[in-house]
Structure formats: C-alpha cells, structure tokens
Design brief:
The chain is 26% helix and 28% strand. The chain is an alpha/beta fold. The longest helix is centred in the middle third of the chain and has 22 residues, at 124-145.
Length: 330
C-alpha cells in the first residue's frame, strides 16, 4: 500500500538521562513489519505509559519511541485471514507501547496474535475507557469471584481512585459486593459514585500494622499498589480470603510473614495482564462488554488530545489523576 504519514506523541533522548516529548509526523513505512496495520481512533493513559514517556529504560529500552500500551481502532491492512480491512479491534498488553510503537500514534502495526476483535456491547471509545486498566481489573475480579461470593463479606480495593482500582470497585459494586476502599485522596466523589460503602484513609490504614496478623476484616482484596498496603491487607484478611496483586507503585517489596497463609489460608494471586492467554483475554473482554459494564461507567473518564498528553503524564506521576484518561486520535 502507498506510504502514509501520521501524527504521534514521541519521546526522544536529548542527552544522558534527558528526555523530551513532542508531537511528530512519522511514516507508516517505518513501523515494524508485522501482520496487521491499524488506524488508531482511541488510546488511554496508563502508569506504564507515563514511565515510558519520561525515559524509564526498564519499560522502554530505545528512543525515540511512541508510548501507548492501549489502542482501539480499525484495521487498515492485514496479511492474515484472521482480520480484514474495516474490522474494529483492540490491542492491549504484549509489547505494545513498550518497545513497539504504541497507541499514542495514529497508526500501529502489530502481530495478529496481539489483536482482539471488538466485542458486541462496546464501542471503540468504551473499550479504551476500560483499556489495560479495565482489563487488569477484570482479571482481578475474575480470579476473586471464583472463590468469594457477595455474602462472604467485604472486599477491599486499594488505590481505588486510580484506573485499575476505580474500575474494579465499580464492577464489584455492580455485582453486589460490599466494597471498601483505601485511598489517599480527600475527594471521595468518585468513590461514592462507584458505590463504595466505606472509604479508609491511607494513613489510618497503615497505622499500627506491625503485627504479623491483624484483625480479620476482608473476604477478598484487589490490591493495585503493593508494598506495605498490600502487606496490611493480607494480614487483615479473613479465613480463606483471596487477595489479588497487580501493581507496585507503592513498593515492589512485600513485608509480610507466612502466618496469614498458613494460619488463615489466605491466597495471594498475581495478576499478569501483559501475557494473558488469548482464550482468557477474549473471555474477560466479553465480560467487560456485558455483565461487568456498570451504570456510571461512562462518567469516570476524561478525553484528551495528543497535545494535552504531556500535562496529564505529569499529573499521573504526581498522583493527582483520578479515574480514566482516554486519548482521541482520529
């Protein structure tokens, strides 16, 4: 096909440990030689995008680079029978936006086994309100609800005003669970709208938590931050509580003994959305499009353009963003 130019948000290395971000015009011909070319209509902003955009070599090894671990759009060209021109599709996870040019550009070209057909019940915009954050929340909800029913007791969600936490809280409340939230934000409007029954201040949650076991409180936990908050949640789990873990923004260390696991039967389940197998990935997206799409779903996002991304990235790294931020590219 003929060469096409497109607009992208690009991070470049200007010197040692110095990075600049700008909107550039690029050529489709320079994209990786993969199976499916997609014109991106929407992306979303995730913490990993903020790290990539600011030069974190643990996320992105080589620059210049276009971040964006999420993309939803329309197939422009395909070398596989699985997809044809005009198909509406979603791409999240794998290497998109990390070392492969990502969804902050108007085009991506990716392997066929990264692509999910947009399920009925979702628009392309709605799929990016979920994005990787919603998919991760969905994986967490899926693992927790296999063992914990609403009548078993309260569910704790940490980092509840962030992308994963807010979507997990909304899904669980929609399913009839009694949701409690740990948050460092003073404004509780979002959590109230999501149906959260109790909001616990982060500092209060972490007070007097040195004992290896704490008072039993939670039938289940969805943790998005790691560190001492995750350790405290584990130590205060009820008998046979299920705890899912998907983040490390607080810390990658886990200061906890074996006692919650061997005396209370607490289960700690890691959530890896990046390498989720396709059959489970499709199942989660279908659930997000149907049973798990809660009432105020479309009230928890803001839409921005590429030229607003830099400011929102700085807000995300400061911890001042709430809910979801999606990027319109079409």
């Amino acid at each position: 096909m003929k060469n096409i130019s497109y607009t992208a948000f690009v991070t470049e290395e200007s010197g040692k440990n110095q990075f600049v971000r700008d909107i550039k015009t690029l050529a489709v011909s320079n994209l990786p030689d993969n199976d499916v070319l997609i014109r991106v209509q929407y992306s979303s902003l995730n913490y990993k995008d903020a790290l990539s955009a600011t030069g974190n070599k643990g996320v992105t090894r080589h620059y210049p680079h276009t971040p964006g671990i999420d993309a939803a759009g329309i197939v422009e060209d395909s070398r596989t029978d699985m997809f044809k021109k005009g198909d509406k599709v979603i791409v999240t996870s794998y290497d998109l936006g990390m070392n492969t040019p990502g969804g902050f550009g108007q085009y991506i070209r990716v392997p066929e086994n990264w692509v999910v057909r947009l399920p009925g019940g979702l628009t392309l915009k709605q799929s990016m309100i979920f994005g990787t954050a919603g998919f991760t929340a969905g994986m967490s909800v899926d693992r927790l609800t296999r063992s914990v029913a609403p009548e078993d007791g309260s569910i704790l969600v940490t980092g509840a005003t962030g992308g994963v936490g807010s979507l997990a809280a909304g899904i669980l409340a929609h399913l009839g669970y009694d949701v409690c939230a740990v948050s460092g934000k003073k404004d509780s409007t979002l959590l109230d709208q999501l149906g959260v029954k109790q909001i616990i201040d982060r500092n209060a949650f972490l007070a007097n938590t040195q004992s290896p076991l704490l008072k039993e409180q939670w039938a289940g936990v969805i943790d998005t931050v790691g560190g001492q908050i995750l350790a405290t949640a584990i130590k205060s789990g009820r008998q046979n509580a299920v705890v899912t873990c998907c983040g490390n923004v607080a810390s990658f260390e886990l200061p906890v003994t074996v006692f919650p696991f061997i005396l209370r039967g607490v289960s700690l389940i890691g959530i890896d959305s990046q390498h989720c197998p396709m059959h489970l990935r499709t199942h989660i997206w279908n659930k997000l499009a149907t049973d798990w799409k809660f009432d105020i779903f479309e009230n928890i996002f803001q839409q921005i353009s590429l030229d607003q991304l830099d400011y929102k990235i700085r807000q995300m790294l400061k911890g001042t963003l709430q809910g979801r931020t999606i990027v319109g590219l079409d």
